[in-house]
Amino acid sequence: MAEGFLARLRRLAADRRGFGAVEFALIAPLLLSLYITSFELTIGLSVSKRVTRSASAIADLVTQQTSVDKAFLATTTDVTNSLFFPYAADDLSIKITGVTLDASGNPTVAWSWNGSNTPPYAVGSPVNVPAEMRAPNSFLIRSEVSVSHELLMFMSGAMPTNLQNITIAREYFYRQRLGSSITCTNC
Fold first, then answer.
1. Are 139 and 175 in contact (CB under 8 A)?
2. pLDDT digits (tens, 9 = 90+) for 73-92
3. Rounded to an integer, what distance in angstroms lies between the CA atom of residue 131 and that of residue 136?
4. Fewer C-beta within 10 Å: the chain N or C terminus?
5. C-alpha span between 149 and 43 (Å, rounded)
6. What residues have CB less than 8 Å from 136, skipping those under 6 apart?
């Protein structure tokens, strides 16, 4: 009886037919989690690029005008939604600010607008403008776009599998193209 058991055990140890399946069973979950994580990161990067394009396009469109109003600024939401297609931009935030720089190059808010038609910044409040954009007696448009994005972080064993809520935000400064400033008639 013991010899039969030992003989079977030797045959089992010598049998190599199932090693490929065992190796695949061990490595498949890791490969699958790496694939899902890289796919989710690619989607996140794509959304980030769309946020950047949206902020740039909004600033570019506004700087082509000499005067804007709330109705015109509201159309920037449509522009952003078209740039985000096929992704949903449910939690989208857009802020557009006219920035006046005085003779010393100090930037202050001339007017501001956001998607809820309320001014997000008080007129005359200071604005943080990059040093290279602080030309005396000039006017800038600052556009800010942010969107909330759910990122699935999936690494079995290494990290907990859960949805991470991140906010992707960009801001752009553009100079006016026509005249010395851009007015907002009803902001």
1. yes
2. 999 988 898 888 887 777 88
3. 11
4. N
5. 10
6. 101, 102, 103, 104, 105
Relative orientation angle of helices 19-63 and 70-84, to the nearest 10 degrees: 160
What Rg value do the Cα atoms of the chain yield, rounded?
28
Strands (E), 35-182: 67-68, 92-101, 107-114, 138-153, 162-175
**Dihedral sign (CA 32, 33, 38, 40):** positive
What's this model's pTM, rounded to 2 decimal places? 0.78
Q: What is the pLDDT of residues 23-51, one digit of tens each?
A: 888 888 888 878 888 888 898 899 999 99
Which of 116, 47, 38, 36 is CA-nearest to residue 85? 47
Contacts of 155 (CB under 8 A, 6+ apart): 33, 34, 37, 161
